[in-house]
């Protein structure tokens, strides 16, 4: 009987030990998962904060670029304004209209050169086929000749493109 009591006692203690071991293992496993969760959560929060800072920084940089982007344009256009001022002063002082006209043409050519250097081009219109994406028709007239149907007869206001994007549509008269 003593043998039976010892074996039954040791068998009855064993499930508790097994449960304790399992509980300890589960606790350790739970601590590992909690540690991993805390680590991942911390990394996520840091990454989110870093991305938010990056987003704010890029917005601020874009705003700064937009503020100063026009600066080079204005700096380069100031000599043209100076030329106009000198031309206006010369017109008041001179009686030679041809010289004043030549001066104005020089300023005009300088300004056109400035525009082309900055990617601005005139949209060709006269005798070109009418294109809704490039032209704005203000009126239509009967075609004087058959081969001019659907083509632009006259341009009342020039149109301009900046780097292949229309910035002002030309106002045109189209023949039908």
Query: Beta-strand percentage?
Result: 15-25%
Radius of gyration: 41 Å
Form type: elongated
The poorly predicted ranges are none
Mean pLDDT: 86
Helix content bin? 55-70%
Textual characterization of the structure:
The chain has 176 residues and is of the alpha+beta class. It has 2 domains: 1-85; 120-176, Nucleotide Exchange Factor Grpe, Chain A, domain 2, CATH 2.30.22.10. The chain is built from 2 helices and 6 strands. The protein has helices spanning 2-93, 97-117, and strands spanning 120-122, 136-141, 152-157, 160-162, 165-168, 171-175. The strands form 2 sheets. The protein has a 3-stranded antiparallel sheet. The chain has a 3-stranded mixed sheet with strand order 2-6-3, with no helix packed on it. A hairpin with a 2-residue loop joins β4 (160-162) and β5. The longest helix has 92 residues, at 2-93. The protein is elongated and about 120 Å long.
